[in-house]
Amino acid sequence: MGLAWQQGPLGTGAIGRFLVPVELPERMLYAEPARRRMRVRFGDNWIADSEDVVLLHEPGRYPVAYFPVEHVVADVLKSEDRTTQHKDLGATAWYTVTAGDASKPRSAWQHVELPDYASELKGRVAFAWRAMDAFYEEDERIVGHAADAYHRIDIRQTSRHLIVRDGDQVVADSSRPLVLFESGFAPRWYVPREDVTDGALTPVEGQTFCPYKGLCSYYDIGTAQRAAWSYEDAWTEVRRISGMVSFEPDKVEVELDGKRMRQEPGQGVISHGVDRDLTVEELS
Fold first, then answer.
1. Domain that holds residue 230
2. CA 277, 279, 280, 281 torsion: positive or negative?
3. Kind and range of the H or E element at 229?
4. Domain boundary among 123, 150, 177
5. Which end of the chain lies in a sparser environment, N or C, as judged by fewer CB atoms within 10 Å?
6. Range of 6-20, 103-117, 206-220 with top mean pLDDT
7. Is residue 9 part of a domain?
8. 30-33 and 45-50 as β-strands: parallel, antiparallel, unpaired?
């Protein structure tokens, strides 16, 4: 899903390679200007507002937004007696964020002993995504993580033949699936509901959301748990997959044009961290 994770070029599961004559470092970090106004909301107050945000792309993580300290409201950041060590960026100081009646410990950080090669982050602070009330680009709220300019989704109609089986049972049979190509992911195949066998899907409790596709519902198939999913009301940019169903090839048998599909390595969702949140609660 972008530059630095899953199968992206800087990710730990990259499927391509750089055509250069020298061996590259095992880890490469990339920083660039966001080139958009970003704001942070906390404790019913705007605590940061900047048109000079830098996005850090780090292997295995979503992009992280770094704000100039001078663009953070005075007295919002309270220094903590806590310093950690980043493997690439050196000593990291942590802050409690306070605004109004709200206070959150360990909810912002700054790299205070940066190596010369990382000067773009000097004098900048990042906020823990889950700890803040909201983040905005211009006047629109963004959810999940800072938007990745290198993330892209393409949806294509295809006449390829997709069959899904659970043991001897045919779960879905379609010659009109949509294939969704998403940066950093293997292609995902979505089947119209009409091509799914009645009663084959058992809805389960619990939803997740994708910052690029919307709220996701899951289904069991027989004893295979969460073997299928659907975006019932996909976001505008990917509206074409609304209500369609996709299947996990490591949980049920998925066959495309007569060939068995397999789950590719490193295709799970990144575990949550202090800088991001992919839980439904963020949408509330």
1. 153-260
2. negative
3. strand 224-230
4. 150
5. C
6. 103-117
7. no
8. unpaired
